[in-house]
From TrEMBL:
<protein>
    <submittedName>
        <fullName>AraC family transcriptional regulator</fullName>
    </submittedName>
</protein>
<dbReference type="InterPro" id="IPR037923">
    <property type="entry name" value="HTH-like"/>
</dbReference>
<feature type="domain" description="HTH araC/xylS-type">
    <location>
        <begin position="185"/>
        <end position="283"/>
    </location>
</feature>
<keyword id="KW-0238">DNA-binding</keyword>
<keyword id="KW-0805">Transcription regulation</keyword>
<dbReference type="InterPro" id="IPR014710">
    <property type="entry name" value="RmlC-like_jellyroll"/>
</dbReference>
<keyword id="KW-0804">Transcription</keyword>
<dbReference type="GO" id="GO:0003700">
    <property type="term" value="F:DNA-binding transcription factor activity"/>
</dbReference>
<dbReference type="Pfam" id="PF02311">
    <property type="entry name" value="AraC_binding"/>
</dbReference>
<dbReference type="InterPro" id="IPR018060">
    <property type="entry name" value="HTH_AraC"/>
</dbReference>
<dbReference type="GO" id="GO:0043565">
    <property type="term" value="F:sequence-specific DNA binding"/>
</dbReference>
<dbReference type="InterPro" id="IPR003313">
    <property type="entry name" value="AraC-bd"/>
</dbReference>
<dbReference type="InterPro" id="IPR009057">
    <property type="entry name" value="Homeodomain-like_sf"/>
</dbReference>
<dbReference type="Pfam" id="PF12833">
    <property type="entry name" value="HTH_18"/>
</dbReference>
Length: 308
């Protein structure tokens, strides 16, 4: 059977996650599928078997499994009782900023798939409990939508990543070459300082003291994305902030981030947000109104998916 690619829909354009509570009858198989987002599963009751990278993880209450970006996986519920579990899917890149971007390469999966980190949740009860508590809290924050919940979700995602880094006794994540991070630091600073202007790969090569051919390969291997894609990503993130916090036209925003060509700006914006800048503003305004209305109504049980 051909594997299916899932499309993850975010409700909140500024929080690239989807989280929900799933309830399934026993002995049901969910076939092979994949998606660009990373995924964490937390079983609350019953038994769930998750197969990924040639390994089957038998999960019971309190167990956690992590799946990497675009990793092919499937799961099956077993036993007589209904299985209940939380699903958290998120875009890793969206949770790194200038001060933490050097840690992105820990999770870019160029050396090992992220699912290799499941040894940690299986062998280390402290790490498992800490990750499980974060997943459960993210779900509750998403369900209640109290003031500042976006900050809480952002912090909790980062805490999960920190748990994996600090408890990784096999060095699968932290084993990335520190020399690579040191050599790219001036390049990353250059990108941030040049967001409003023209950022060139030639200048980046000179800062890294590398030839063009070696630099583009080195950057992609270290960061998990190409230099051009990284620059566009950082520019569009700045554009999002300007669209929501400044009284500027779309063309003025494009000028502010060094993308005066409107066709190119729209193309890049749609690549990362799946909508135009104007649509992004309207969605955020509508989201803010809905969130404000929800905060005025006591939250009740929610079994549907909550996406951001």
């Amino acid at each position: 059977m051909q594997a299916r690619q899932e499309k993850i829909e975010y409700e909140n354009p500024l929080l690239s996650i989807k989280v929900w509570q799933a309830m399934r009858q026993a002995d049901l198989l969910y076939g092979w599928h994949h998606h660009p987002e990373c995924e964490l599963l937390l079983v609350q009751s019953g038994r769930l078997d998750v197969e990924v990278n040639g390994e089957t993880h038998v999960m019971g209450e309190g167990d956690v499994v992590v799946l990497g970006s675009s990793q092919l996986h499937r799961d099956r519920s077993y036993g007589d009782a209904q299985v209940q579990y939380l699903v958290l899917q998120f875009d890793l890149q969206a949770f790194f900023d200038q001060s933490t971007i050097s840690y992105l390469q820990y999770f870019n999966e160029t050396k090992v798939p992220l699912s290799a980190m499941n040894y940690l949740f299986k062998e280390n009860p402290i790490a498992r409990r800490e990750a499980a508590a974060c997943i459960a809290e993210i779900y509750e924050e998403a369900r209640r939508k109290e003031a500042g919940y976006e900050l809480a979700v952002n912090l909790l995602i980062k805490k999960i990543l920190l748990v994996m880094i600090r408890h990784d006794k096999m060095g699968l994540l932290a084993g990335q070459d520190r020399v690579e991070r040191i050599r790219l630091r001036p390049v990353l600073d250059y990108v941030e300082s040049g967001i409003t202007g023209r950022v060139t790969v030639e200048d980046a090569c000179r800062l890294a003291n590398m030839s063009y051919y070696y630099f583009v390969k080195f950057f992609k291997k270290s960061m998990g994305i190409s230099f051009t894609e990284y620059v566009n990503f950082r520019k569009i993130k700045t554009a999002e902030q300007l669209l929501l916090t400044r009284d500027l036209s779309v063309s003025e925003v494009g000028d502010r981030i060094g993308m005066p060509n409107m066709a190119h700006f729209y193309k890049m914006f749609k690549r990362f947000n799946h909508c135009s800048p104007k649509e992004f503003q309207r969605k955020m305004l509508a989201w803010g109104e809905v969130t404000q209305a929800n905060r005025q109504v006591p939250a009740g049980p929610d079994r549907a998916g909550i996406s951001f």
